[in-house]
Amino acid sequence: MSGPVHVARSAASRVYAAAINWRNRRFDRGHGISRVDRRVISVGNLSMGGTGKTPMVRWLLEHLSMMGSQPAVVTRGYGAKPGRDADEVLEYRDANPDTPIFVGGDRAAVLRSELPAHPEVDCIVMDDGFQHRALHRDLDLVLISAHEPLDSGHVIPAGRLREPPSSLRRADAVIVTGSRVIDGKLAARIESFHGQPPIAWCSHAWSSLTIMEADRVREVEIDWLHRRRVVVRLGIGSPETVRSQLRVLGAVVANERPARDHQPFSQAEASFLSEVLDADAILMTAKDWVKARDVLDLNRLKVPIVVPRLELRFLEGEAALGQLVHDAVADAGESNLLDTIS
């Protein structure tokens, strides 16, 4: 990027960064923060999506349940159409049907409304919460993707960061996602901002494939994709991770339907996919499928839908992260419901 557009975006980024710094200083002084009488674990990031927050939230829910806790999720529900649930909300409800999912932009107001009806809930996992500082959190976890390792350091619109890397200083722990190896240079860079190296490193791996046809749904091994031609629809923050996995498995991408992160599934896309003939399958993520299933008619498709099952796999630090989570929720202590710190 060069010329007037680059200059304009750089100037806008400086204005944005100044506004973020002012906002953070206000929260640092304790203004406008609400507490709940449950322990809150926040999962967030610095970049504009694509770090794997949803798999991490699911891992936390499983870990907390194994500890004997009864967690709930609170999420903004970003990208939802009026009267519809957001894709992450649908994913959480599919994967964790017994877990309450609270949805709304004002997380404190949502919890004020919902928690009295859920006395069994003893802790909250806040999805995409690093920038939502109006709700107090007892553990602040930040995810950094190995594919976007803070190289530019630019905030939007000149870059993809929501706030400067120096904001990592307020996180309790940093977790690197999407990594195949422990990267010493990335660890040192994160430590330069956060003060500590990452507590854990993990990858996102496909454990199986769900194949959906008009007359049946079946689970198969991921090597089913080997040498198969697929059409892909990737309305996610980091589509390159899916493309990379397909290459590793030996699949051939015959066509790709472009989509923005969180993009709703349209009738035009359904019509396009219903005419796919020169492929063995249409592949999309679970995040895409929860929106597509209300629009697509499997009876009209000429090839099956394939949805990979995504799991979080730790390279290092799972025990340390688990202990941090345990310590955060083990001693709930006494707090007042939604006391506003002024």
Describe this structure in words.
The protein is of the alpha/beta class. The protein has 2 domains: 4-199 and 317-341, P-loop containing nucleotide triphosphate hydrolases (Rossmann fold); 206-310, Rossmann fold (3-Layer(aba) Sandwich), CATH 3.40.50. The chain is built from 9 helices and 14 strands. It has helices spanning 4-28, 53-66, 87-95, 107-114, 184-194, 239-249, 267-274, 286-292, 318-330; strands at residues 33-34, 39-45, 71-75, 101-103, 123-127, 139-145, 173-177, 200-212, 217-220, 229-233, 252-257, 281-284, 305-316, 340-341. Strands 2, 3, 4, 5, 6, 7, 8, 9, 10, 11, 12 and 13 form a 12-stranded mixed sheet that branches. The chain has a two-stranded antiparallel ribbon with strand order 1-14. The longest helix has 25 residues, at 4-28.
List the helices and strands and how they pair.
Layout: H1 4-28, E1 33-34, E2 39-45, H2 53-66, E3 71-75, H3 87-95, E4 101-103, H4 107-114, E5 123-127, E6 139-145, E7 173-177, H5 184-194, E8 200-212, E9 217-220, E10 229-233, H6 239-249, E11 252-257, H7 267-274, E12 281-284, H8 286-292, E13 305-316, H9 318-330, E14 340-341
Helix pairs in contact: 3-8
